[in-house]
Amino acid sequence: MDYKKTNAPLNTVTRDLVDLSEETGNIYETVCIIAKRSNQIADEMKHDLEKKLQEFASLNDNLEEISENREQIEISRYYEKLPKPTLIATQEYIEHKIHFRNPADYKDMD
């Protein structure tokens, strides 16, 4: 899922743990699933931001010379206004957009 087109809330929302853990039957497993997806989203966001800001990197790093680039500031502001990765991952989990499996369930089949 594209994190830029999410309908996740921008602020923290209180969730009912019983409803949230209904699919897995275990709140700890649910939190682990959301946390792993959140880490994936954070890595993707970081990679995209670094790639966009790489265009503005100056070849000579001089501490005395600090220049403002309006475009760079706008890109940074855009990423700051996006929902946090945890909120995006939680919304994806609620909308059943995260596919997961428990490896312990498949060990019994061997």
Structural description of this entry:
Helices cover 54% and strands 0% of the residues. With 110 residues, the chain is mainly alpha-helical. Helix 2 crosses helix 4.
Write the layout of secondary structure elements.
Blueprint (H helix, E strand, L loop, with lengths): L16 H4 L6 H28 L15 H12 L3 H10 L8 H5 L3
Helix pairs in contact: 2-3, 2-4
The fraction of residues assigned to DSSP E strands is: under 5%
Low-confidence stretches: none
Sequence of secondary-structure elements = HHHHH
In total, the number of strands is 0
Distance between the termini: 33 Å
Helix fraction bin: 40-55%
Structural class, by secondary structure, is mainly alpha
Major sheet characteristics: none
User: Rg, please?
Assistant: 19 Å
Quickly count the helices.
Answer: 5
Overall shape: it is elongated
Mean pLDDT, all residues = 83
Name a few traits of the molecule.
110 residues, mainly alpha, 5 helices, 54% helix
Put the structure in a nutshell.
This protein is an all-alpha fold. The chain is 54% helix and 0% strand.
